[in-house]
Design goal:
This protein is α+β, with helices and mostly antiparallel strands and 196 residues long. It has a single domain, classed as Reverse transcriptase/Diguanylate cyclase domain (Alpha-Beta Plaits, 2-Layer Sandwich), CATH 3.30.70.270. 53% of the residues lie in helices and 14% in strands. It has 9 helices and 5 strands; from the N terminus they run ααβαββααβαβααα. A 5-stranded antiparallel beta sheet has the order 2-3-1-4-5, sandwiched between helices. α1 packs antiparallel against α2. The longest helix is centred in the N-terminal third of the chain and has 18 residues. The protein is globular. The termini are far apart. The N terminus and C terminus are likely disordered.
């Protein structure tokens, strides 16, 4: 695993100068730096590698969400802010480029990530949801390295608006349980939440 992260980091360093440096935030909203010129995607990829190692070692789930909003940097920053507000503290989010954001969701299945996207889609303007392309990949089924998960997530993007429209219908029991698990709520104490 260490050599996979090393290769990915090395590949990133050679292309980083071409793509520029972009603000990057960890799950707690603090800036993290890749070097003296500012922040970039290196932190996210290295952190994703550590989370993948943990998921592999303990046989846990992990999901990756990639979002692209071409040519709309201000809207992407707003989308990133809403995404951070939707995530748990243990989740990671950061810019991969001037038009792409990624989120790494430890202990989350594909269904949990899709539930999160439904909530996110309902929290933003419909115009932004229409223009935003999203892709989801889950460890281990879609890939066991960052490159594998990123490639899968980019392979078949869909509009975030589709998740907004899907949010209007009642989720089936499996989707609802995945969403509750992402929120750290068990079906047993779900009734307590409804009563309050």
């Amino acid at each position: 695993m260490g050599e996979d992260v090393g290769r990915e980091t090395s590949a990133l360093r050679t292309t980083q100068g071409q793509s520029g440096m972009f603000p990057l935030l960890n799950g707690s909203g603090r800036r993290t730096s890749d070097g003296p010129n500012g922040a970039g995607p290196l932190w996210l990829i290295e952190s994703a590698g550590k989370e993948l190692t943990r998921a592999r070692r303990y046989n846990h789930s992990l999901a990756v969400i990639l979002m692209t909003l071409p040519g709309k940097r201000r809207a992407l920053d707003h989308l990133t802010s809403n995404l951070r507000n939707t995530l748990r503290l243990s989740d990671l989010v950061g810019h991969l480029s001037s038009s792409s954001v990624a989120a790494v969701l430890p202990e989350t299945t594909r269904e949990g990530a899709q539930g999160l996207l439904r909530r996110l889609a309902l929290s933003i303007d419909e115009d932004v949801a229409t223009l935003t392309l999203v892709g989801v990949a889950a460890f281990p089924g879609d890939g066991v390295t960052w490159v594998g998960l990123e490639t899968t997530a980019r392979r078949a993007p869909s509009s975030l608006l589709g998740y907004r429209n899907a949010g209007a219908t009642k989720p089936d029991e499996q989707e609802e349980n995945a969403l509750l698990a992402h929120l750290s709520v068990t079906p047993n104490n779900k009734a307590n939440l409804s009563a309050s």
